[in-house]
Amino acid sequence: MSLLDTLPAATGDGARGSAGSAADARDAAIALLRSTGLPTKKTEAWRFTSVRAIAERALPVAPTSLTPPHPDVVRFVGGHPVLPTAPRSPAVSLARVSHLGPFGAEALDAAHPFAALNTALFSDALVVKVMGVAARPVFVDHVAFENERADTAAYARIRVELAANAELVLVERYRGASALSDSVVEIVLGENAKLVHLRTHEDEGALVGSVFVRQARGSRYVSHALSFYGAPTRLDLRVRLEGEGAECSLDGVALVAGDVHSDHHVRVDHAAPRTTSRMRHRAVVSDRATSVFDGQAHVLPGAAGCEAHQHSRNLLLSDRGTVHTKPHLEIHVDEVVASHGATVGALDADALFYLRARGISESDAKTLLTYAFLQELVDAIEHPALRTAMRDALLSQLPGGELVRALEDDALDFEEDHPTEAEDDA
Amino acid sequence: MLSIQNLHVEVGGKPILKGLTLELKAGEVHAIMGPNGAGKSTLSYVLAGRDGYEVKAGSITFLGQDLLAMDVSERAAAGLFLGFQYPVAIPGVSNLHFVRAALNAQRKARGEAELSAAELMKLAREKGKLVELPADLMKRAVNDGFSGGEKKRNEIFQMAMLEPKLAVLDETDSGLDIDALRVVASGVNALRSPERAMLVITHYQRLLDHIVPDRVHVLVDGRIVESGDKSLALRLEDEGYEKIRASAAISGAAS
Ligand SMILES: Nc1ncnc2c1ncn2[C@@H]1O[C@H](COP(=O)(O)OP(=O)(O)OP(=O)(O)O)[C@@H](O)[C@H]1O
Ligand SMILES: [Mg+2]
Predict the structure, then answer these.
(1) What is the ipTM of this complex?
(2) What does the alpha-carbon distance between residue A191 and residue A223 come to, in Å, rounded to a whole number?
(3) How far is the CA of B42 from the centre of ligand 1 (A)?
């Protein structure tokens, strides 16, 4: 039995052709999978993340279901998109398409087996087109159809296109989905466009997600990816900085406990001069959990004046937990500003004692210090409501997280000497 | 308030405190002086309950309770405060959140109601004024990037907020400029009361001009070798520790 048993027969002879038509893309994906198979622990990029338990099950594609639409949120139910009913910002169009069109090129270029599996098996895709500055975020929730979750696979497919100067905030939540959730998000940013992309992985099934980003001149891609569930969670985030001055900022947090396994593979190709990439990864590992981070930046020939940073910090709260971290950099030009580094450590014993000596219990002290370790990446989220939501999602997974919420929510007003604020004493 | 009897403590298998005895009554301020490495900070850490300090013999009673049987945070809730010789920076935790978490944890442990945000701020303003702690230091991460003197001021701010029954101040005066010394001393003096006691560890008689002690103890090589009134501090300033060391060595050999 194999997950690949669920692949359809090839639709034509597209396997050898270019990915021009829909059928060609599907066929190319099927051909790729038939020749390479799903990754094993011998596959370099999957050394630390075993997908055997999934690969050995012929999980059928989740059936479509008649789920009523949500007014404001795009829902993927078992991988099938259900568009919201409420009117949206005129700058944004959402469509559900059943044909592939030019899709799949990015995913296939990357020769990513699970992206190919998605290309072969997804039914309908969500296409988000943004022509101007979107006033409100687009929310996408990935959920399972009630009765199908245990034994099905969900293949969600999203394409996001931002026109020149367009701006959007995209918020994706993966929660309570199927036995396998294999999603692909393709993003194309026009000149000076800006996309802020938040993802939370709260899924209890296996979650394999790929994000492929192409950026034109002066565009910005800001990603905040947060994992705290999954068996395993694997995120592949690949960004191509194709236009001069394009920038990406890629933050990832893994908060893992129990047997949870989180793997973030992030790669940026600097294909144009004066492009910038910043990767920051923070993992908190308890119990027998594992966090993997592989962060690569490649500065390609001709891409002068680039800046590339990869930093990984890991807090290991248990001696049975595992951290694999590998920030690295490949440079093919002379003139680059670069930094990379990785740390793995326990909570600072001196800080712990200091907090306890002031009356804070040991468990609360650990919570405060653990959250302090992650806070920088939460604070980096520009949009206040989303920052709070992200923080709350994190705190809900942190033992004693209510303490931090209680401290922060009941805002303390410091500006006592400011005459305009004098009334708060009343 | 505090009774330490024949305390023997080892750190990493090495004896540091070697039969220390000390009595401190409510309302009193005692100073401890002594050469570097004598065990002054060790005493303060043992009182606060830090890991790695192994009590081999002796007892500590605090307000009638066996202090050594209590957890670190329980000791704080019972009214013990340690002003650190080297306050720890905690990036990512704001000073006010920290003080608030500490104060409310202590109140909760004592069965008292937690303070609301407004009550806390009122208190913080009042106590912040007392030790002249600038508002921006309250908002910043605990001791993160604070100067040496600012850290010490912050210790006194925390003490003023927490209103302990016994404050152990380990070299709170070190690294302070003259103005800061006055400020810190007045913060300490403001807290002096018949219900409170203080144990002030210092190298300088100068501090004791501002915080006048009831008793001065000299700690040498893990033991109190001499105690006296405030004039002892003046004498030490003149003579140094040599004379005391010599006579302690004689009495140590004799005992
Ligand atoms: N972890 C440790 N392992 C071994 N020895 C230690 C350890 N911690 C402290 N000591 C030793 O214990 C002795 C007492 O140290 P302590 O810090 O109590 O001295 P102190 O009286 O506070 O000195 P100072 O005036 O310099 O602050 C010193 O000799 C010191 O080296
Ligand atoms: Mg000391």
Answers:
(1) 0.94
(2) 18
(3) 6
